[in-house]
Structure formats: C-alpha cells, structure tokens
Amino acid sequence: YQHLLTSSESRNFRTPQPSRNDYSAPFAPSANLALFALRKLRKGADGAFSAKTIQMNYRFHLQKYRPGSKIACPACHRHRCFTRYVDEEGRVTFPEHVGRCDHQNSCGYHFTPKMYFAENPLVDVPSAVRPKIVATPKVVLPTVMEPALMAKTMTAYHLNPLFRFLSGVMGEDEVRRIFQLYNVGTSRQWGGAAVFWQVDHKGQIRAGKVCGYNPFTGHRIKKPKDLLIWAHWLLGIKMNLRQCLFGEHLLRDNPAQQVVIVESEKTALICAWKMPEYVWLATGGKDMLKPSQALLGRDVILIPDLRAEEIWRAKMPALKAVCRSVTISDYISKIATDEERKDGLDIADFLLMDPTVGVAVEQMKAGNPYLAEFMVDLKLTATSTQEGSPDGLKILPGKSDSASENKQIINPEES
C-alpha cells in the first residue's frame, strides 16, 4: 500500500516507532495506518483514489499571523517582531520566550520547542508529529488589486522620502523616470512613504509594500518602530497575498536582456539607473528568493547582500530547474571589509559610497593583470594614509556606457 500514500510518507513500514518522549523523531507509519488510509481514500468513477490524502502535520509550529499576534522580542526588545510557538492540540502552553524573531540578521533569536522540552523534561509530549487526514487542498489563486489603486499613488513625489533622497543622487527627472518604470508610488502614511507595487509578468498587481525612509540617508526606518505595512491592510482589503518579484513586469518587454536579482527594492532602482543594460529585480527580503515561472528560460545573475550570500547559494539548484542559467556575483564580497560584511551592505551601498581601498585595488588589477602577481610575490597589502581613497577613483563613473565596466561590477562566478 506504500504507493497509495503521499511521497512525504513513503517510508519503510517496518521502521520502529519513536519512543513516547522522542518528540523530534519523524512519525513512521505502520501497516495498520496504511490500511486505515485505504479506508479513508474514496474511489471515483474513473477508478482513481481521490478526495482525501494523508499529510504530516507538525504539532508544534509558529503561530499563524493575524493582527496583534506578534509581540516584542525578548532579546532585541523590538515591538511586534516576535512569533510564538503554539501546540496544535492545545495541551502545551509555551512561555512567551519560546518563538522566533523576524530580525534574523540583526537579532537572530530563535528558541524552539525542542530547546524548551530539553529544559523541562517533566513535560509529557507523546509526539511532535502526528498524522492527520485532511481534504485535498484546493488551488487558491492569488488576489490581484485594481490598477486604479496603483495609479492614485503615482503622484505627490514631493512627499516621498525615497524620491527626495534619490533626487540628490541622480536628479528629479531621472528618479521620476525610474519610479514610473518600476511602479513606485507615494503614500501619506507616516507623513510620506514609498509604495513598491509588485506587478507580475502578466501585468497583474499582486501587492503594494509601503515603506518609510529617511530622506537624508536613504535608509529604511526600522527604529523605534519598523515602518513597513502592506497597502491592502491600509485600504481594508482582504487578500490572498502571493508576492512576486519587484520589477517582474519588465521581463515581458525585455525578453533578451540578462536578469539580475538583488534583495532590496531601493537597490534595484539604483542599479537600474547605473546599469540599464540589465533587467534588475528585487526579492524584497533575503528569504524571498524562490523559483518563479516568470524566470523560465532566462539567464539570471544573483547579487545578494553580504550576509545573505550563503543562503542564496543554497537556493541556486532550485532556480536552475527554471532558469536557463544561474550565476552568483562575488564582486562586493571581494572588496568588502569585515565591518561592511558585519553591516550586511549590498551593491547599492558600494555604488553610492566613496571608493574604498579594496575597490581601487580591484580596479587596478582589472587594468593590469600583472599587479596581482606582483602583490603576491612581494607580499604587499593595500592600505591608505587617509580616509577613503584617491580622488578620481569611482566604482562607476556616473551612468556607465561600457559593458566591460559593468561586467567588472557584476563579475558572475559560476557556482
């Protein structure tokens, strides 16, 4: 009867059952369970079993999000960023410190039920994993938003703090062009905020992410409160949210251009200005990189933030199943200092900052391949007698027209 079970449960029926207190061991179905499953499966008119299947349901899991469910993190003490673990059966009530902080980069707090039970051995837990007969899930299509809602936000850029910051970098006319190209709007939330509309490759509006920015530094405001909210929440619209890549709508009109994926929406905007020969997309978060039908048959380059490189490398095999080719750039990793790695800078930070010694050396090596051998032979290291680097050295001289200069920045390395 093994072939009648779902693939996640196709295990040897003779595998011993976990002990009573071994809550972390996987559930091994027995022959009796297989017979039980057969009774629950109903045979259709065409002779195929349907209607119900067995799925593994973890008893202890992070609480599903609902307004007000998140609390302050016990480690970093930031508000509404901590998700608690719950018991599906309602028999175990975990303390408030058992859960996971959303800020895995800066905080990283994650106290699991396994750690809780290790500290409390007297708590009786029969099994953390239990079989559950559930109906075959229906395919739920993502909810899309009306174009008129997005159109209303594509004005009042004088209130948009990100527009004001980028205007000092590339000029108002160029920022307006980039914002219109990528569908970046303005919200009056918090006295002015940027709205990153996610429009998929079919032209459907999946979501709008509203973010608060400091108009002087261009950094997103995260303290004392993380200024991030979804547009449909502000509008009171109930949605089945299923995000897409920011800038995904540009793929349809640029079928031959190479695709570069970064994490931040702001980074995609800056890079699109600096290097328009690529289609720049953003995931909106380091954990949001995933295969997409929009990338089918495309050549893709990944440029993760400094603290997300290993995470994105681990996801490359899944992307290769969809994309024609997937490579990852190690350029910023080569030139970054330890402090810059600790801060998790991205490629936009390097494009906007004054050139560092590492950048200057890499550019010199590109112009003279013998320099690298010379430095190794004489055991030389790069240093600077003053803050920054010599005048005139730029990571990119304005809007680059040279494909070779851009390749130095992208510098994809086959994984």
Question: Can you tell me about this structure?
Answer:
- The strands form five sheets. Strands 14-13-15-16-17 form a five-stranded mixed beta sheet. It has a four-stranded antiparallel beta sheet with strand order 4-5-6-7.
- The chain has 415 residues and is an alpha+beta fold.
- Strand 10 and strand 11 (205-211) form a beta hairpin.
- Helix 4 (161-170) crosses helix 5.
- The protein contains 16 helices and 17 strands.
- The model is unreliable at 1-31, 34-38, 40-55 and 384-402 (pLDDT under 50).
Write the layout of secondary structure elements.
Blueprint (H helix, E strand, L loop, with lengths): L30 H10 L1 E2 L5 E2 L1 E7 L1 E3 L19 E6 L11 E3 L8 E2 L1 H7 L9 E7 L11 H7 L7 H10 L1 H11 L1 E4 L5 E7 L5 E7 L16 E3 H5 L14 H4 L5 E4 L2 H10 L4 E4 L16 E4 L6 H6 L1 H5 L4 E5 L1 H5 L2 H6 L3 H6 L4 H11 L2 H8 L25 H8 L1 E2 L2
Parallel strand pairs: 13-14, 13-15, 15-16
Antiparallel strand pairs: 1-2, 3-8, 4-5, 5-6, 6-7, 9-10, 10-11, 11-12, 16-17
Helix pairs in contact: 4-5
